[in-house]
Amino acid sequence: MFTLATDIDALARFGRALADPIRCRVLLALRESPAHPADLAETLGVSRTRLSNHLACLRDCGLVVAVPVGRRVRYELADARLGHALDDLRSAVLAVETDATCVDAEEEGCR
């Protein structure tokens, strides 16, 4: 049983990050390989401003890091185990219930 505040906080941060479809897509893209924001925005079909907000949320959650590369910044998962966790979580959820739908309450954002 999770009783430590740090365990609960870690899971809450992961859940907050996964609560938004764009953030999920960012995490899945970064699972494949590190990327520059402009490339991510183009790949995901979102504006750079919108992507920037989601990247800031993911950084605040501690799930991605910004790595300076010359005059540009590249984003990557903060730890390779996060990619494995995403794969494991997706597999577990699909194994439990393949036809369930999750109705969103009000979208709250990442604050």
From TrEMBL:
Record bears the keyword Nucleotide-binding: no
GO molecular function: cadmium ion sensor activity; DNA binding; DNA-binding transcription factor activity; lead ion binding
Highest taxon listed in the record's lineage: Bacteria
Signal peptide: none
GO biological process: response to cadmium ion; response to lead ion
Ranges of residues in domain HTH arsR-type: 4-100
InterPro entries: ArsR-like_HTH, HTH_ArsR_DNA-bd_dom, HTH_Metal-responsive_Reg, WH-like_DNA-bd_sf, WH_DNA-bd_sf
Pfam families given in the database record: HTH_5
Keyword annotations of the record: DNA-binding
Protein name per its UniProtKB record: DNA-binding transcriptional ArsR family regulator
Native species: Nocardiopsis sinuspersici
